[in-house]
Amino acid sequence: MFKISTMERFCAFCFYITLLCITASTWGCGSSETPLDAKTREAIDSLSTAEIRLLRVELDSQCQMARVTQMPQLVDSIKQVRLREIQEQLKTVPR
C-alpha cells in the first residue's frame, strides 16, 4: 500500500495554496464585468505558468532537502519504538 509522508503532504499543500493564490490574484485584477482580451489572457497564462514552474522547482528542492534531513530521524524513531515493542514481547515469552 502506498503511504504519503507528512512532508509530501506539506509540499503538496504548499503547492496548491500557491496555485490558489496565483489564481485568486489574477481573478482579482480589474472589473469582473469587463472581459479580458486575448493578449491579456495569454499574458496572465504565461506569467502564471512561469511562476508555477519556478515554485514547483523550489518546492521540490525543499521537499528533497527535508527528506534528506528528516528521514534518518524518522527511521531511527520508528526503529526505537519497534525495538521497545520487541523487548516487551520477549519479556512475555516463557523460557
Q: How would you characterize the overall build of this protein?
A:
This protein is mainly alpha-helical and 95 residues long. It has a domain at 37-95. It contains 2 helices and no strands. α1 (6-27) runs antiparallel to α2. The mean pLDDT is 81.
- Count of strand segments: 0
Helix count? Answer: 2
| Proportion of beta-strand residues | under 5%
Helix percent reads over 70%
The topology string of helices and strands comes to HH
| Model regions low in confidence, pLDDT < 50 over at least 5 residues | none
Major sheet: none
Structural class: mainly alpha
Distance between the termini: 37 Å
User: Mean pLDDT, rounded to whole units?
Assistant: 81
The shape is rod-shaped
Mind telling me the C-alpha Rg?
24 Å
What's the structural blueprint in terms of helices and strands?
Layout: H1 6-27, H2 38-92
Helix pairs in contact: 1-2
Brief rundown of the structure:
The protein is mainly α. It is 81% helix and 0% strand.
